[in-house]
Each structure stands twice: as C-alpha cells, then as structure tokens.
Amino acid sequence: MQVIDRRGTLVAMLHRSATGSLESAWVRIPDGSWLGIEPRATREAPWGWSDRLWHAAEPSGRAWHGTPLTVFEALDWTGIDRIPALGEPARLPRGGGTAVLNLIAALAAEQGARRLAYRGPYPTEQLFLALLEAFRYEPASPDPLAAFMRGGLEWRPAPSERVFVADDLYVQIRERIEKVVWRGVVYYRPDWQGVARHCPRRIVDAPDGVRCALWALALRLEDHLLL
Question: Is 112 in a helix, a strand, or coil?
Fold first, then answer.
C-alpha cells in the first residue's frame, strides 16, 4: 500500500503479509528522509514486544537498512487499541514522532477506533503537543495538559493531511493549514483545540492567504512566507 499526497509525492508505504499483518511501514518526514517501522522487532524492552524505528534516506522493500533509532510498545496494526509508549524520543529526527503518530491515527480511524488512550510513562508536555497534531483529546477540560498528565484524557483519531509542496516546503493540513516546515524552520498555529501554543514562528490567516511569520510579545515582526 502506498500513500500519495495531493501533489503526487509518496508519503507512506505499508507492506502487509497475506494474512493482513503489518510486515513493514515507512513514512516520509518533513526533511524528506524516512522513518521505518519494523513490527515486533525485539522483546528487550520494559513492556515486552516492541516495534523498532529506523531512519533512512529512502524507504526499503523487505530488507531493513539505515540507522536503528529506538523502539516503541508493539501494536496490533490490524486493530490499533492504544497510543504506544516510546523508548527514546530524543533520538528521533525532527518531525519523526508526529509523522508516526499521524500514521497511527490514520490507520486507527480507518479501523473505526473511536478513542485511544496513552498509559505509558512520562506523559509530558512535549508528547501532549505531539498528540494534538494527529488526535483530538476528550473530554473537554479547562486544563487538558494537567488532565493528560494524570491519565484523564483519551484521544480521538484526527489525522492531518501531509503535503510535500517542494523539497524545502512541507505543509500539514486539518481543515486549515496547521503546521509548516520551510527551509528547516517550523511554523505552528498558535491555537490547537483551544490550547495556546507559545512559539515565535506562527501561522496566521490574512486577507491574501496564510502567512508564516516571526512573532514576539504578541506582535508580528516579520513575514517569512505567504501560502
């Protein structure tokens, strides 16, 4: 199975066995390189069976190549029922974690999963923000980050459309443009499901399109890109 974006760029590849189980998957990340998922690669993790993540310039067919990065809690890819714990998030290249989460969300949505929970260790703010890019949290909460940290949220799959516009331009869309990576620099919407995301490089709507700009002290200082 191949996933092609609206501009004709290959963004994901999944290889399944004759019985439907996942044998391998690859997802393109914003810098144009790829992360591979090797299902049930090892049992040498605190939670037992784990899927391994690989990083490579190009995806492979059957043989694994590139750099092994880390592992995450093994999933049943034919019936995704949770958000897995990840071993070493810091080893992933920028945009890698959210690309994998988006694949998980897309497959879970196709399978009819209504809500998934994260029950792993370290429910951090970084993970919370990453989940916002591919899921919607439930129930509504006046302090969703605190609710997440105490295990009080579930996550409804809401994957983004990922578009590789050019070699140096990646756009993430979910009803609106939510994230842009241009020349290696990341721009975000300042609001995600009611959560304020404090970032100096923001995406805002304008009469002539969508602008990516540098902000400070609630002021737009410099426009960098118009979409």
Answer: coil
DSSP letters, 33-60, are -EEEEEEEEES-STTSSEEEEEEESS--
Cα dihedral 219, 222, 225, 227 sign: positive
Residue 59 CB coordination number (10 Å): 22
Q: What whole-number distance in Å separates Cα of residue 20 and Cα of residue 144?
A: 36
Token match 């105490």: residue?
A: 150
pLDDT score, position 179 = 98
Do 135 and 158 meet the contact criterion of CB atoms below 8 Å apart? Answer: yes
Percent helix, strand and coil across the chain, each to the nearest 5: 15, 45, 40
- First-to-last C-alpha distance (Å) of the chain: 30
Structural Rg of the chain based on CA atoms: 18
Q: What is the mean pLDDT of the chain?
A: 95
Closest CA to 153 of 141, 169, 165: 141
pLDDT of 66 higher than 80: yes
